[in-house]
Amino acid sequence: MKMWSGRFRQPLDPAFENWQRSFEFDCRLLECELDASAAHARALKAAGVLSAEELASVLEGLEQIEERAMASPEFLDDQEAEDVHHFVEKQLVGLIGDTGYKLHSGRSRNEQIATDLRLYVRAGCDEISEALAELMLAIVDRAEQAGQVAMPAYTHMRRAEPVLVAHWLLAYIEMFFRDADRLRDCRKRANVCPLGSGALTGSTLPLDRELMANELGFSAPTANSIDATSDRDFVIEFVNTLSLLALHLSRWAEEMLLFSTQEYGFVHLPEAYSTGSSAMPQKMNGDLLELTRGKAGRVIGNATALLITTKGLPLAYNKDLQETQEPLFHAAETVLSLLPLVTGWMRSAEFDLEGMQKAAETGYMNAFAAATYLVRQGVPFRIAHEQVGKAVRLALDKSCELHGLSLEELKNIDSHFNDDFYSFVKLDNVLAIHDVPGGTAPARVREAVAAARKRLTPACEEAHAHA
Q1: Helical H segments across 28-72, by residue range
Q2: How confident is the model over 409-427, as pLDDT tens digits?
Q3: Long-range contacts formed by 373-378: CB under 8 A, 24+ apart
Q4: Residues annotated as part of the active site
């Protein structure tokens, strides 16, 4: 029996009936639906709608539905259920009889789906936060292992200045910390309970909304019944947060792909996360990295789909909102499947630290330090920049590095050059002079690695606690 068929004389067109069903994808919400239904049942008992015996029967029936779903995936192969709400009611009535119909007293599917989705998003924030913390730990471990090894840093895809490998890796840590913060913020706004909102005007029964919210771990009931049933901001915010996370993963993947090419040679692809070519026997392809880039496009597309779907909807509930579910599910599942694989890749990949160190010692990447040397001799920076540029030009003509120029040649460019210039532009000092918070001076980077690990400890503990 349909949940709404009393007003209708004719059956639905079979093609339309199948086309408008959502159970094929909203079956993912079964656990959320059962939890919310149990909270609603207890509120019905407190309101005098269910007797103690009826409540016990309903709760037992809901538990049996969950057990059957866990024991057999075929249990969810129901071609009649319109959506997850209809499925639960149908199964409950089959288990406990007409008492099962009482569960829908004082509520609407509009508030049910809003509640289920909030529970789903809240759980998604927790699971993704935990997986993200594991990835961040892996990156911090690799940064610590890199020690004092340097590498070239790039601007405009050209070698710019040397940095510590650890400093480069910590740049991704900062991106992921921002993602983790956004997930925490999103969770706070998602964590309010629509139960008791009815279709749009509030329940007609004296339901204890605080009781239902507390039982489900929500911070409070929603404040407005119209907004509660039509709001999908929390879904959009969640998927937008995931799109930024996916973007950061894509940037990481792109750089790892570049650095793993023969032209760079900084990273060796782990075989466990790579594939070969069906035509060229010598090939090893970074498929995990390429798919990470590709799946970022899917998540970003999900965020766009949500915005377009909701941008012109009047209040309150409209069936268009059914179309917000699949982008949510796909984005969450994509990121959840991706993060552990990226973590595994990060722990398995090998960095050619010797090659990175060697690359950091050539290519005039100490030119900025050379200009700094002149500034410390009292030369205005703009003039120092010009003079060092001339020195680079001369070194290019002679096919040598800056320290390969003689002191006489340097003094012909600027009289402020002295013997101590050569030690000043050595790699160790070039790194050390960036001695500011957030800089690549070795002492600062050691502090930053320790600080990142310290910041991660409570993040990991919080994620595990929610999970």
Answers
A1: 30-46, 52-71
A2: 999 999 999 999 999 999 9
A3: 373/417, 373/421, 373/424, 373/425, 374/414, 374/416, 374/417, 377/416, 377/418, 378/416
A4: 156, 277
Decide: residue 56, CB within 10 A, 0-12 exposed, 13-18 middle, 19+ buried.
middle
Residue 154, in any domain of the structure: yes
Contact assessment for residue 245 and residue 179, using Cβ atoms and an 8 Å cutoff = yes
**Tokens at 383, concatenated:** 């003039």
* Cβ contact 176:135 at 8 Å: yes
Confidence of residue 460 (pLDDT cuts 50, 70, 90): low
Average pLDDT across the chain, whole number? 95
What is the domain count for the chain?
3
Write down the pLDDT at residue 463.
57
The verdict on 127 and 86 lying in the same domain is no
Does residue 187 sit in the same domain as residue 311? yes
Domain hosting residue 210, numbered range: 110-355+459-466
Domain end, chosen from 71, 105, 139, is at 105
62 shares a domain with 83? yes
